[in-house]
Amino acid sequence: MKYRKVCVGGTFDVLHRGHMKLIEEACQVSDHLVICVTTSEFASRFKRRVVRAFEDRIRDLLNFLKENGLVNKVSILPTEDIYGATLIDPEIEAIVVTAESLKRGFEVNLECWRRGMRLLDIVVVPMVKAEDGKPISASRILKGEIDREGRIVKCLR
Fold first, then answer.
1. Of 41, 107, 109, 154, which has the maximum CB count within 10 A?
2. Helix, strand, coil percentages, rounded to 5, for the chain
3. Which of 143, 118, 139 has the alpha carbon at shortest distance from 51?
4. H/E run at residue 77
């Protein structure tokens, strides 16, 4: 199904192949994608580590979007909560998530229901796996287990 507008959210601290696949697939199912990026303040409240500056994370996203010809199809907004633009933009028809963030999609729809708003379709994009078969994640990259492409960079014991 093709949507007019969809939303995806995240911290995008270390932009990696999993993020890129999520954004690419969200663009494929929509005419327009809204990427809601957690502010540094919000990220520091729910992450167990320090995240890069908001401006740096946005710059990396914009570079990726420009390199892939997607910049005109995407809006980037800061968010201070898990809902992003979903509760304020009535044109959003779906939220794109991974299996890891599916719970957030349900939480967004629960809040939509509580407010008497239309429920969003939830589009689940498969997690991108590293060479070891485990999902690529910023935390694994920061630990030095894998690189941004999911290649193993050190032996684990």
1. 109
2. 35, 25, 40
3. 139
4. strand 74-79
Going by the DSSP 8-state scheme, the letter that residue 68 receives in this structure is: T
Residues 21, 127: Cα–Cα separation, whole Å: 9
Distance CA 10, CA 38 (A): 6
**CATH number, domain 3-127, options 3.40.630.30, 3.40.50.620, 1.10.150.390, 3.40.50.1220:** 3.40.50.620
Residues 6+ apart with CB under 8 A from 34: 5, 6, 7, 8, 74, 75, 76, 77, 84, 85, 89, 92
pLDDT single digits (tens) 11-70? 999 999 999 999 999 999 999 999 999 998 888 787 667 789 999 999 999 999 999 999
